[in-house]
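#onboarding

Welcome to the new folks! Below is a worked example of what a typical request in this channel looks like: someone posts a single protein sequence, and someone else replies with the predicted structure as tokens. Don't worry about understanding the tokens yet, we'll cover that in week two.

Example request:
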Amino acid sequence: MHVPDGFLDAPTSIATGVVAVAGVAVALRGARKELDDRTAPLAGLVATFVFAAQMINFPVAGGTSGHLLGGVLAAVLAGPCTAVLCISVVLLVQSLLMADGGVTALGTNITLMGLVGVAVGWLVFKALITVLPRTKASVPPAAAVAALVSVPVAALAFTALFAIGGTAPVETGKVLTAMVGWHVVIGLGEAVITFLVVGAVVASRPDLVHGARHLHSADDLEIRKAAA
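Example response:
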């Protein structure tokens, strides 16, 4: 999904850059509440995993590419604000050192993958986790469904930006079909990977998983009731 330089016109790129800066600023403040001495190393591991996963690219259309996003995986493990920072750092390094995504399109890529992908996925995850049984077993499937939804939604958001300020000689309808179609398939792969990784971490260290904190709160409440 990396957008290259010049694929969107200057006004659209500037607008998404402003949105990205504002989103990262909010995430910086929110991450302070999500991270502590125990969970900070996990955020670094998540960023490293996402960086490696995003290096596997699938050509889509008009110079764009599709790949795993990792936003929901990062959000469930480390928190949504921390996930935005992880994705943003990964995209920054990729654009500067790996020529993956344009520097002038960095704001667009952060907006799509770091903000839209994470926000949509986290909202879906929270909605599912409130209706599923309050057990550790509910966290991985909720994360997987959220990951599946977040990927094509981010692709749809890109198509909307292309319709507004696209410069490539490609019809918007073809971009929509290619991007959403491919990213539904990619979303299935991301759902499987998210399910496996989140499931492994929840099974071994549920206390480190941000998306499972509600389970610890419930356990603490039961302990206090038993003690009383």
